[in-house]
Amino acid sequence: MSDYEQFFSTNAKNMKKSEIRELLKLTTKPGVISFAGGLPAPDLFPVEELREVIDHVLKSDGPKALQYGPTEGDMNLREELRKFMMKEGIDIPVEQIFVITSSQQGLDLTGKIFTDPGDIIMSGKPTYVGAIQAFHSYGAKMCPVDLDEEGIDTEKLDTEIKRFTDNGQKPKFIYVVPDFQNPSGITLKLERRKDLIAIAEKYDMIIVEDSPYRQLRFEGKSEEPLLSLSRDRVLSLFTFSKILLPGFRLGWMAGPAPLIQKAIVAKQAVDLCAPPFNQAVLAEFMKRGLLEKQIQRIIVAYREKRDYMLEKLDEFMPRIEGLKWTRPAGGLFLWVTLPKHMNTSELFKEAVVKKKVAYVMGCSFDPTGLERNTMRLNFSFADKEQIAEGIKRLGELIKDKI
Amino acid sequence: MSDYEQFFSTNAKNMKKSEIRELLKLTTKPGVISFAGGLPAPDLFPVEELREVIDHVLKSDGPKALQYGPTEGDMNLREELRKFMMKEGIDIPVEQIFVITSSQQGLDLTGKIFTDPGDIIMSGKPTYVGAIQAFHSYGAKMCPVDLDEEGIDTEKLDTEIKRFTDNGQKPKFIYVVPDFQNPSGITLKLERRKDLIAIAEKYDMIIVEDSPYRQLRFEGKSEEPLLSLSRDRVLSLFTFSKILLPGFRLGWMAGPAPLIQKAIVAKQAVDLCAPPFNQAVLAEFMKRGLLEKQIQRIIVAYREKRDYMLEKLDEFMPRIEGLKWTRPAGGLFLWVTLPKHMNTSELFKEAVVKKKVAYVMGCSFDPTGLERNTMRLNFSFADKEQIAEGIKRLGELIKDKI
C-alpha cells in the first residue's frame, strides 16, 4: 500500500505538525537552555500533598473515582470550581461550568461546535498556537488583528469585522487570550474589554475567552473577566495546567447554558468524560484549600523568575533601535521584538545548535505565518542560573547580527 | 440573547444527546436494577495495587509524571503495550502504537482524519452507539450491514460496497467490533475476518478494528486480530476501560505508520496528550505484571455473571416464538431479540418505572434508528442477586406483552 493520502479528510490533508512541538525535540539536546516550551516549573508541583489527597480519594471513594463519570464532570469538582470562580468575581451556576480534558480540548470543542470549513474567526496577532491548530483543523480561516500594549486593537477589530460582514461573511467568533496573553504576555485593558463586548453586541457575535494564566498575577489588580462583563456572549476556557499541573489534563469551560449544553453533547462523542479519577483528586485538593496555596507559591516563584529575566535582558541585550520586549504582570511568557531586518525563524537553528539557547519564533503565533522578527521567551521553566546564561547567549546571537 | 442556534456549525446542529446516556439517568433511581450501562464491576478495581503503584510513581518520578508529555504517549507505556500486543500475536513496533485519551477518542480521531461530510462508513448492524455518535459528528453517513451469529455478513457487505462504488461513492472505511461485539456479544469468525480483509483489498479500503473486550474471553480460543491479518489496511483501537478501569480514560491505537502519524498530528490540536500521570501509573502497573493478573480476575468474575444471567434467562423468559438471545464467549453484553411485534423503545418506560428494570433499546445501536425488537443487556455490573431479580422482572414484562 502506498497511497494513504487518498483516505484522509480535507481537513486532515491540511493538518500540519506543530512546528513548536517538533522544535521542542531539538531543544532537549544536552547543554541547550530552552525558553521555548510553555512548561510550568516541575519543582513546584505539590507532589507530597497530591500523594495524600490521592490516598484519601482511593481509600474513601476508590471504586467510584475509577469508574466512568458524567460527561459534564464530577459534581464535587464543578461545585469547587463554582466557588473558585466566585472569588474571581464570576458568579455562575454549576450547570454552566463544564469539566474538560484540558483547555486545549476546549479549543477543539469550540472549533467543533461553531466552525464550518471556510468560516472566519477573529483573533489577536500574535495569538496562541494551539488555538490556530485547533481552529484550522475545522477548516476555519483565522483573521488576526494586531495587539498593542493594551491588548487587541479593538478599533481595527471593528473595522475588520465590518469589512467581512459587509461582504456577507460575518465572522463566527472572536478569540482572545485576555490575561498575560500567550505569547506576548500582554493583558487586555478594561476599556478594551468593554469595547470588545460592545463589538460582539453590535455584530451579534460570540467571544471565546481563553484564560489559562489569569490567576498568576504578580502585581496590580486583575482586569474584570470578559465572562463577568457579558454573561450572554462569552464562552470562557480555564485550565489547571498552569496554576497546578498539566499532567492530569483537566480544565473547565464556563458560559451561556445553550453553548455549554452543545459542548457537552459534542464531548460525549469525543471522549465520554474527562478522567474521573483525576477530577475526584482535584475536587478534594481544592476542598482542602490547597489550590489557592499552590497558586500563591507559583506566583512568588514566577515573579522572581520574570524579574530576573527582565534584569538579564537589560544587562545582556544590545541597545539598538527596534529591539524591545514586553514586561508582563503575570503568566509565563514575554515577547521580544527584534529589528525588522532580523528573522527569528532563520536565526533559530543557529541559536540552538551554535549558541545552545532556544525560543519560539514569532511566526508560530501568526495565523498568516508572516511574522518574522519576534520571539516568545518562557520564564517559568528554567532556573535562575539558566536564565542568566541563556539570555547572555541570546544577547550574543543578536549582537552578531547587528 | 435568544438565538444561539445561528452560531453552531452544520455538524453541531445535527448533534443529538445520546439517548443511552440520557436514559442512564433514569436508571439510577432507587430500586431500579440496571442492565443498561456498559460499566465494569467497580468492586473488581484493584484499588490497593493502584495505590501502591501511584505511591511509587509519585516518589520516584513525580515531577515528570505531572508535567506535559509527548502527544504520541509515554514511551514506557508504549513499550509495555508493545509487549502486551506481542502476547496477542501482534508484533508491531512501538512507533506504530499511540496512546489516546480513551478509545472513544480513537473513534473521534478516526472520524476526524478520514471523514468529510457525506462520506459513507460501512458498519455492522447493530453496532457501537459511541461510534455512531463520533462518525455522525463529522457528518458521515453510516451504512450498516446485518450481523449473524458469525459476525458481519461479509457477502452482503461486499454487495453494498460494490453498489456504492459503482455509484461513484466509495465508502471511506469499514468499522467493526470483531470481539464480543457491543452490543450483540457476537465474535467475528476467522473465515469472515479473512473475507473482510479481502474486501478491503478488493476495493482499496481501510478497516477500523475497535476491540475493547478482546482480552475478556471466558472460553475457547481467540480469533486472530484483524491487525495481524493485515498490517496494511487495519487501524485498531484498544482500551484500558474494560480490562482494568475506565476512570483513567486511557486507550491505544495501533496500525500503519502513515495513519498513526496523521492521528498524532490531529491529537496535538485535540488535547495535546493523554494524561501523563495516568500513563506513568499504568506503565508501572503493567511492568509489575498486574494487568494480566487483573484480566484473569475479571474473566473469572464476568464468566460467572454471564453464566448466571444465561441461567436466569432460561428460567424466567417465556418460551415463545421469536424470543432469543446470544450466548457470548466473552465481553460485557448479550443481546435479546423479542418477537417482531414487540418494541423495546415503547416498553422502556414501563420497564423502568413499573417493573424497575433497565436495558438499552436496540434502536440506539442502529445508525438508521429503525431497529425495534431488540435490547442490550450488560452482565458485568449487577451482582448475582440483582441479575436473578432483574431477569425475573424482564421476563414478566415480556410475558405481559404476549
| CATH homolog superfamily of the largest domain in chain A | Type I PLP-dependent aspartate aminotransferase-like (Major domain)
Count of structural domains of chain A: 2
The helix/strand series of chain A, from N terminus to C terminus, equals HHEHHEHEHEEHEHEHEEHHHEEHEEEH
* Count of helical regions of chain A: 14
- The residue ranges of chain A in which pLDDT falls below 50 over 5 or more consecutive positions are none
Give a quick precis of the structure:
The structure is a homodimer of 402-residue chains. Chain A has 402 residues and is an alpha/beta fold. Chain A has helices at residues 10-14, 19-26, 47-66, 75-87, 103-114, 129-136, 154-166, 190-203, 226-229, 257-271, 276-287, 290-316, 344-355, 384-401; strands at residues 33-34, 97-100, 120-125, 141-148, 151-152, 173-176, 206-210, 234-239, 251-254, 324-325, 333-337, 357-358, 360-361, 374-378.
Characterize the structure shown.
The structure is a homodimer of 402-residue chains. Chain A has 14 helices and 14 strands. With 402 residues, chain A is of the alpha/beta class. Chain A folds into two domains: 9-45 and 293-401, Alpha-Beta Complex (Aspartate Aminotransferase, domain 1); 58-289, Type I PLP-dependent aspartate aminotransferase-like (Major domain) (Aspartate Aminotransferase, domain 2, 3-Layer(aba) Sandwich), CATH 3.40.640. The first copy, chain A, has an eight-stranded mixed β-sheet, with helices on both faces. A four-stranded antiparallel β-sheet of chain A has the order 10-11-14-13. In chain A, a hairpin with a 2-residue loop joins β4 (141-148) and β5 (151-152).
